[in-house]
Specification:
Helix 3 (79-89) runs parallel beside helix 7 (222-242). This protein has seven helices and seven strands, in the order αβββααβαβαββαα. It is globular. The protein is α/β, with parallel strands linked by helices. The strands form two sheets. It has a five-stranded mixed β-sheet, with helices on both faces. Strands 1-2 form a two-stranded antiparallel sheet. Strand 6 and strand 7 (186-198) form a beta hairpin.
């Protein structure tokens, strides 16, 4: 009899399942959308420019150790997140220079071979130049920078051992640089950081007791911390740009410099 009830129970659970689209706990700090100069549901703390400065391409160095470290955390490229954030700020027009460039080149090759329709309007001289190159890197990322286990146990005894053992700190530090494509001069650089507490079993304990802790606090992805750090980096670099002042070198840039050798 018990076995015959199992399929019924499965069907009931399936009928109760639902997809919660737009769930706040699933979001990162890079939220919302961007269409041209308009942004929808963007992070309210994200910096914004009233006038667009120029075009920018995002280029990440996939040969660096930090990129492989992200892959170990099952995190993909950082470029989609940065492109969203940059367009939402309205400070830059984002141009594609990543893997999608291959598809763009493929379309042009098809046009050159005569395979595309005459109405395709695929011509030379249509691509927009990138005024600036923005390069991201993760300078530090720690999945478990804990140390709270022993402290929790020391403060509240045996309960602390359970709580402390389930508490970990996820933190990340990121860096972005902005380079002028024509001169090669670095115009701005900014670090960003983020830190989050993962309460693990303590969230479940309070939730079971009818408390308010739980839900998003019980499981926090490392990726959300990295995205938050990049959001902080973007904010910091835009603040630097808004207060930008060109550096002056006596004699002009690249003319030998003023540190003389005897």
């Amino acid at each position: 009899m018990k076995n015959s009830l199992i399929p019924v129970a499965v069907m009931l659970l399936a009928s109760c399942a639902s997809m919660d689209m737009g769930n706040k706990e699933a979001k990162t700090t890079a939220t919302g959308s961007a269409g041209g100069a308009n942004a929808q549901n963007a992070n309210s703390t994200l910096e914004h420019c009233t006038e667009t400065i120029g075009t920018v391409a995002v280029e990440e160095d996939t040969t660096q150790p930090w990129y492989y470290a992200l892959q170990q955390h099952q995190l993909g490229p950082t470029t989609p997140v940065l492109k969203l954030l940059l367009q939402q700020t309205n400070c830059f027009v984002v141009v594609e220079r990543g893997k999608a460039m291959r598809n763009m080149q493929q379309e042009r090759e098809l046009a050159a071979s005569g395979e595309l329709r005459n109405t395709a309007k695929m011509q030379k001289g249509q691509m927009v130049a990138a005024d600036y190159i923005l390069s991201p890197s993760v300078t530090f990322s720690n999945k478990d920078a804990g140390g709270l286990g022993a402290m929790g146990g020391g403060l509240i005894g045996s309960v602390g051992a359970l709580v402390g053992g389930s508490v970990s700190t996820k933190e990340a530090s990121t860096l972005i640089t902005l380079v002028d494509t024509r001169s090669g001069v670095q115009l701005a650089a900014a670090e960003g950081s983020a830190k989050n507490m993962d309460f693990g079993a303590i969230g479940g304990m309070f939730a079971g007791a009818g408390g308010g802790v739980g839900g998003g606090y019980s499981n926090t992805a490392q990726g959300k911390v990295v995205v938050a750090a990049f959001t902080d980096s973007v904010n910091n670099v835009i603040k630097a740009i808004k207060n930008y002042k060109a550096q002056e070198v006596k004699g002009g840039l690249g003319a030998g410099g003023n540190l003389k050798v005897n």
